[in-house]
Specification:
Elements: H1 11-19, H2 46-50, H3 61-77, H4 85-95, H5 106-114, H6 125-134, H7 136-152, H8 159-167, H9 178-188, H10 205-213, H11 227-242, H12 249-263, H13 295-300, H14 315-328, H15 337-354, E1 360-363, E2 373-377, E3 380-388, H16 400-408, E4 412-417, E5 428-431, H17 432-438, H18 467-475
Parallel strand pairs: 3-4
Antiparallel strand pairs: 1-2, 2-3, 4-5
Helix pairs in contact: 4-9, 6-7, 7-8, 8-11, 10-11, 10-12
Length: 477
């Protein structure tokens, strides 16, 4: 090959490399710039990657026994699934079928996007933004195309990998990602998919596998472990671990959530709490306005998630409404808010009447005293704040006045009624300490007055100094 630099990766160069001849260009042993690279290893096949994923057989025997005991108790306490799940699933299984997808209207699609029945998709800012940006018809068509690819895409791309492709930010419909895509799978393949729509996160499938069953599931960055594959395989794993004793996959999902609450030491059905499950840990802060609501929905009058008095023309009112709606899981904003509140009051009053005789129950919800019902029996006095919600999770909106009374009023408790408009769950009580510990400041009201009583806004000059000078300014106020 002479004294010139070796650059080709042919047979002669490979022979020189094997013989250990120095690189003429760099006067050293073969370097990364000149050394011919051996052929790249073939990527692992889908079967090889899946073989690395945990299986039910890895669960320790004591864990299996404990979960089995909890399952037996759960089925006695909750023998039936959420009654709203089956009709919702049947409706969208038909709408998303090969024959029905083209006829899925913007109103039907909007309901699927916003409903928390079966599964709560959590943060929907992305899809709301798409809906507003391109309009309801274009957004609906884009989602139809995305669903068609997910369910009936090319056979050359496996179903797990089609999901992985759609989860990518540059593929499919913007904002219609893992949670909503998985919810599509839940309604179209209900025998297979648990309504657990995220892999990661506090209430995701990975957390359940780890905390309930002691299985360490891989992260998406692992070799060959794409988001779609993890979503499919973790679903199949948890479905098998839950067992076949449940009425449907929604029933099994709720059991797994309850066990997760139990192992975390949180209020659960096993400790007498109402049938409940967590919402995804996201707050839906959107800048929706009237244009974001499908015209077909608005014309039909089926805008059921806005409270009385909400002004869709006022962006501040709309954003506050969105925050409150997501924080409460439907508290008063799904269906008739007055009916939700009435059911809650009736259920709590009935609870006391069903207890031992002697309770004197008085509704004080119109008195604005900081709670809704006063229940007295002898020296025992309960000041009951009632929260009724249409969704399944006891996540509620608490006012500053209610928190003040929770702190200062002896006997203050909160009673929560979930699924108020479908099949109300048993009343679940929380102490003032429970509420105060769980309360997080999400929305603030600022009453601002012009400086010096003037009507003109005042400005304050700010000196831009060094970082230390700015820190000193902050420290001195």
């Amino acid at each position: 090959m002479g004294d010139g630099p070796v650059s080709e990766a042919g047979t002669a160069a490979l022979d020189v490399w094997k013989a250990g001849v120095d690189c003429k260009r760099h006067q050293t042993s073969w370097c990364s710039l000149c050394k011919p690279q051996p052929p790249a290893a073939e990527p692992p096949t889908l079967v090889q990657v899946k073989a690395q994923f945990p299986t039910p057989g890895l669960v320790a025997a004591p864990t299996q026994e404990r979960v089995g005991d909890l399952k037996e108790r759960y089925l006695q306490l909750q023998p039936e699934p959420d009654p709203a799940a089956a009709p919702f699933r049947a409706k969208y299984r038909q709408l998303f079928s090969a024959e029905g997808l083209a006829g899925c209207s913007p109103a039907d699609m909007w309901t699927f996007l916003t409903s928390t029945v079966l599964a709560d998709p959590g943060d929907r800012r992305g899809i709301y933004g798409t809906w507003k940006e391109v309009g309801e018809r274009a957004a609906t068509q884009s989602i139809r195309d995305t669903i068609e690819y997910l369910l009936r895409g090319p056979a050359s791309v496996g179903e797990e990998d089609r999901l992985s492709e759609l989860v990518r930010s540059d593929f499919g419909t913007k904002g219609f990602k893992e949670a909503l895509l998985t919810k599509v799978l839940c309604v179209t393949q209900p025998e297979r998919f648990l309504p657990l729509v995220v892999y990661s996160g506090t209430w995701g499938k990975r957390a359940i596998a780890t905390e309930v069953f002691g299985l360490a599931l891989p992260v998406a960055a692992a070799s060959g472990m794409t988001r779609g594959r993890l979503a499919y395989w973790s679903n199949d794993l948890l479905r098998d671990l839950a067992g076949p004793e449940f009425v449907d996959t929604e029933h099994a999902k709720h059991f797994l959530w309850c066990v997760l609450q139990e192992v975390r030491g949180q209020p659960s059905i096993f400790a007498g709490s109402a049938r409940s499950g967590p919402r995804l840990d996201t707050v839906d802060l959107t800048d929706l306005d009237a244009d974001a609501v499908p015209a077909s929905v608005a014309e039909s009058g089926d805008v059921t998630d806005m409270p009385d008095g909400a002004d869709l023309s006022d962006p501040a009112d709309v954003v506050l409404t969105a925050v409150v709606r997501d924080l409460t899981g439907g508290q008063g904003y799904s269906g008739d808010p007055h009916e939700v509140e009435r059911v809650g009051m009736d259920r709590v009053i009935a609870y006391f009447k069903d207890q031992d005789a002697g309770w004197v129950v008085t509704a004080v919800d119109q008195d604005k005293c900081g709670w809704d019902i006063t229940a007295v029996r002898g020296d025992e006095r309960w000041c009951v704040e009632v929260k009724a919600i249409s969704g399944p999770a006891p996540r509620v909106f608490v006012t500053a006045n209610e928190l003040r009374h929770a702190t200062a009023t002896p006997g203050w408790v909160m009673a929560v009624v979930t699924r108020a408009l479908s099949s109300p769950d048993p009343v679940c009580f929380f102490t003032a300490a429970d509420v105060l510990a769980a309360a997080e400041p999400k929305v603030y009201q600022a009453k601002l007055e012009p400086a010096d009583g003037t009507a003109e806004p005042q400005t304050r000059s700010v000196s831009v100094g060094t970082e230390d000078e700015r820190a000193a300014d902050v420290a001195t106020g």
